[in-house]
Structures are given as C-alpha cells and as structure tokens.
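In the previous lecture we treated proteins in isolation. Real proteins rarely work alone, and many bind small molecules. This record shows how such a complex is specified: first the sequence, then the SMILES for L4P3G6V5.
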Amino acid sequence: MALRAVRSLAILSNPLRTYSTSGPLVNVSINEKTGIATATLQRPPVNSLNLELLTELCTTLEQLEKNKSRGLILTSSSNTVFSAGLDIYEMYKPNMDRYKQFWTTLQQTWINLYGSSYPTVAVVNGHAPAGGCLLALSCEYRIMLNNFTIGLNETKLGMIAPTWFAASMRNAIGTRQTELALITGNLFTTDEALKIGLVDEVVQSKNEALEKAGKFFDKFKRIPPHARTMTKTSLRGADIQALVKSRNEEMNKLTAFINDPKLQEAIGMYLESLKQKQNK
Ligand SMILES: CCCCCCCC/C=C\CC(=O)SCCNC(=O)CCNC(=O)[C@H](O)C(C)(C)COP(=O)(O)OP(=O)(O)OC[C@H]1O[C@@H](n2cnc3c(N)ncnc32)[C@H](O)[C@@H]1OP(=O)(O)O
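The predicted 3D structure, ligand included, written as tokens:
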C-alpha cells in the first residue's frame, strides 16, 4: 500500500503528464487541458473518514498545494453517499495513540482544504452528514445532487461539533443559521440546504455537477491568483489560526471526551442501531 501511495505522489508531482493516480482510498485524476484535479473518495460502503482515508486525502491536498494546482473537485465514488462523516469506529473504545493521530490528521486535512490557495468545489453526490458536511463546507463552492441530506448533526448523536466545524458552517451560512443548525443537529434536504445557502447549486446528475464546477473555475481565469488567495486568507485565516492556537487544548478535551464511559456506551448503541437498520 505504501509503495502505491508513493507512486501516486510521484505522478502528481510531475506537472506535464496526464495524471490519473489510484491511491487505494482517494483516486486523483488531473485534467490535462484545464489542470483541475478531481479527488474521488473511494472507501466503500459510505466513505467514512478513518485515519487511512484522512491521511491519503491530507497528503493529496499537500501535493496539490505544492504543485500550484489550478483547482480541486472533491467528490465520491458512491452514488448515494458523499461521506458518512467520521468513522465512528475511530471513536469507539479507541487505541489512544491512534485516536490522537486520527484527530491530528483530521485537523490538518481541514487546514489544508479550508485554507487551500487553489479554488475548490465539492460535488456532493450523496448524503453528507457530520464530517462529510465538514469536507463540503471546507470547499469554496458546493454543488449537490438532489434527494440527499447534509448537515452537522453531531448534537443528535450526543456529540459537540468542534469550533472549527462550526466556523466552517458560519462562513457559509452566517451565525444565526449556524446556531439553529447546530443546536438542532439538523440534516437538511438538498432543497433546504440550497435555501439557506449551505449549498450553492442543486443539480440532477453528476455530469451536470461537473459542468457547473467547470463554470465556477472559469470565473478565476481573469483574476490574479495572488489576489484570489489573499482575499480567501483574509476571510478564512482567522478560523485556521484559532485552531492552530488551540490544538493542544482541543486534544486534551477530545481525550477526556472519548474516555467518558457514558459516551462510549452511547456510541456502542449508535453503532448497533446502524447495523440493525440493515436487518429491517
Ligand atoms: C471538544 C469537542 C469534543 C467533540 C468531539 C466529537 C466531535 C465529533 C465530530 C464529528 C462526528 C462525526 O462525523 S460522527 C459520524 C456521524 N455520521 C453519521 O451519523 C452517519 C451515519 N450513517 C448514516 O446515516 C448512513 O450510513 C448513511 C445515510 C450515510 C448511508 O446510509 P446507507 O443506507 O447507504 O448505509 P448504511 O447505513 O446501511 O451503512 C452501511 C455500513 O456503513 C456503516 N457506517 C455508516 N456510517 C458510518 C460511520 N460514520 N462510521 C462507521 N461506519 C459507518 C454502517 O454501520 C453499515 O455497516 P455494516 O455494513 O457493517 O452494517
């Protein structure tokens, strides 16, 4: 697996080729004509974000930054799920070293995506609860297919969305709507999400979404990249700095949180309910 990942990155760092790399969990292809990268999450059945998937995504984002990418489309290989959010097994009776590495990698992935200098579009081609919604919110533009749900539903699971999850949502829909969305843990239908600005466009097919994504990237053809990036940093930089400053403190909170026996019991029951769903 390590060898395959290294080969993928080697291909990514050669700017003259038609790129198509196949990491096991994130497929990256780069359009030769436009230079736009498409990163497709491919961890069946629901693209839940475990340490390995996050590590691959985080490295991909670093490479795109290093290679001065023209842009990124983030999407899913599933037809029904963009990402089911954090892999709940990473939080259920975890090995604490792995748990810490998991959170550190999630934080870094968010920093890389939310703060990328290149333009980013999420093609949300399926459900996007919790951490799945975070990935979409970290992009600059969200195009969602109809008939799915999206939102930060952590409170419904007895959890609290970390401050940087909330900041990402606030950046998209403002403080009032974020407060309402977070305290109720609401999962929005596609149309509701469009109405409050949680997504920017709703489409009927992935092809249509990719076409619209192309139009979003076209907007930057005549914008000097440094002006684009500095504007983005002026709007998002404070959220990133806030996390960078509080990383240790947050890790202490996350550790105390996960060691609470009541929470572990609740997570166990939630996992069971997800399994039961399949038997119905
Ligand atoms: C200091 C602050 C402290 C706060 C710290 C905590 C902060 C927590 C932050 C974020 C939380 C999260 O992201 S938690 C994850 C939340 N996600 C969810 O609740 C989604 C759960 N999943 C679903 O609702 C559905 O699976 C789906 C709508 C996404 C897809 O439905 P579908 O019918 O297509 O698939 P199944 O439900 O049958 O699932 C298939 C298979 O996948 C397993 N599964 C689903 N989601 C997860 C997940 N998030 N993690 C791990 N595994 C998951 C599900 O159990 C099924 O498994 P089996 O085939 O083995 O039964």
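Summary for your notes: Residues 24 and 101 are 20 Å apart (CA to CA). The mean pLDDT is 92.
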